[in-house]
Amino acid sequence: xxxxxxxxxxxxxxxxxxxxxxxxxxxxxxxxxxxxxxxxxxxxxxxxxxxxxxxxxxxxxxxxxxxxxxxxxxxxxxxxxxxxxxxxxxxxxxxxxxxxxxxxxxxxxxxxxxxxxxxxxxxxxxxxxxxxxxxxxxxxxxxxxxxxxxxxxxxxxxxxxxxxxxxxxxxxxxxxxxxxxxxxxxxxxxxxxxxxxxxxxxxxxxxxxxxxxxxxxxxxxxxxxxxxxxxxxxxxxxxxxxxxxxxxxxxxxxxxxxxxxxxxxxxxxxxxxxxxxxxxxxxxxxxxxxxxxxxxxxxxxxxxxxxxxxxxxxxxxxxxxxxxxxxxxxxxxxxxxxxxxxxxxxxxxx
Length: 350
Description:
Elements: H1 10-26, H2 32-38, H3 45-57, E1 61-62, E2 71-72, H4 74-84, H5 92-102, H6 109-124, E3 127-131, E4 139-148, E5 152-160, E6 163-170, H7 177-191, H8 196-210, H9 216-226, E7 238-241, H10 255-267, H11 269-279, E8 287-290, E9 302-311, E10 314-324, H12 329-348
Antiparallel strand pairs: 1-2, 3-7, 3-10, 4-5, 5-6, 8-9, 9-10
């Protein structure tokens, strides 16, 4: 998070907001005459030039060329988002399009996540991103173990909201199907509705207390968990849609920077880490990461606008849009907020 910026006075606010909106719309450096025209002669061009010089001195504006107007900096966008952006509601037809696109269809949650990234891209005209729940954040519905040859076991995990996870684990000793059934019954009776991460922590705590019982079921559960029966997945799956929209953005005209950004989307790890970090931010609403606030240098010409979504009051993932720093914040922020609330409702109703 950038250092705190002092609140500007009303005149500075008006001029800065006008310049930011004008540059977002046109991509052309703003001159004092253009600003004066939009402010409908609230102040003279000379006064506005003076205010623009003050804003430039405080790091909110830069002048790319001697004869050019001013361009907002990352600091200006941050100030705009924190203090000046208008809280708009989406147009009714946009809300209807989003709801109809994501309406329940019996699909698995992964299909909903893929559709959500596509809808975010379509509505925002930028890149739509969705971070699915990590396995460890899923809530257990049912678990079953199936004995396989050569001391292997198939773990079938039914959880919400990701539904199914099948994995084969190798064990250090042989267990009968009856012993595996007993272990599964114990886990289903004791931990249905728990997150997989919380189950693993609790199991190891209990095993420490129960190991003196010499119970075969306890031994079975211990071996299964030590072999990774409930996984160790730290990150969820990333869904990305709309990267082709970046091609038409003059902000990414530098082919080298553009290729680096595409590589970040393809490799996904940096984007996932950024979204995961946003989930740790205090508060429950939309998080905006602007320009050099992004830890990944490939994304330091971008704005990332994300919000968490929930399953039964638990934050399980994040979704949002990625665009240039001059993204239309007044539209992108309510779009992300609306889609996040809708996904929460759809998942929790499943």
